[in-house]
Specification:
By secondary structure, this protein is mainly alpha-helical. It is 67% helix and 0% strand.
Length: 152
């Protein structure tokens, strides 16, 4: 790509076109021009990359919990799409954990409970059931959340 930009230009480029800024960073890194790198924004992006990976995992967990609640507390409305969502997100979780094994540290009781609280509220919204219809504490274990055959 061979962009010839100053650090100030790179910082401005970051605000205007992050995709082009990213290409410029890759180009500078590949060329070994470390003194030209927009280090401040590069650090921000690397930190954000880890958060995005974690957030993808949590999003899948939240969707599973939400659909398990819907499945359990609104059995008359069960649909194939609910079970497909649960199965799909379980596959996604396995992929995320295979690709980023350090994310397994999230599979602890604290994260399960924290994620459950959001899923509980979302299930109430989606089902039109009162929030207090759903248990205040998560009634599922990690093993159940991740088990392909578990449906309450």
């Amino acid at each position: 790509m061979a962009l010839n930009l100053s650090r100030l230009d790179l910082a401005t480029l970051y605000e205007r076109d992050i995709a082009l800024w990213s290409e410029a960073m890759v180009d500078l890194l590949q060329q070994g021009q470390f003194d030209q790198i927009d280090l401040k924004h590069l650090i921000d992006e690397v930190e954000d990359l880890g958060r995005r990976q974690r957030d993808r995992l949590i999003s899948s967990i939240r969707l599973i919990l939400q659909h398990l609640l819907k499945w359990q507390y609104q059995p008359e409305r069960r649909s194939p799409s609910w079970s497909k969502t649960i199965r799909r997100e379980r596959l996604n979780i396995q992929t995320y954990l295979d690709d980023t094994p350090s994310l397994k540290r999230i599979l602890n009781p604290e994260w399960l409970e924290k994620t459950y609280q959001t899923a509980r509220k979302e299930a109430a919204i989606e089902t039109d059931l009162p929030l207090n219809q759903f248990p205040t504490r998560c009634g599922y274990t990690w093993e159940q959340v991740l088990d392909d055959s578990f449906f309450p």
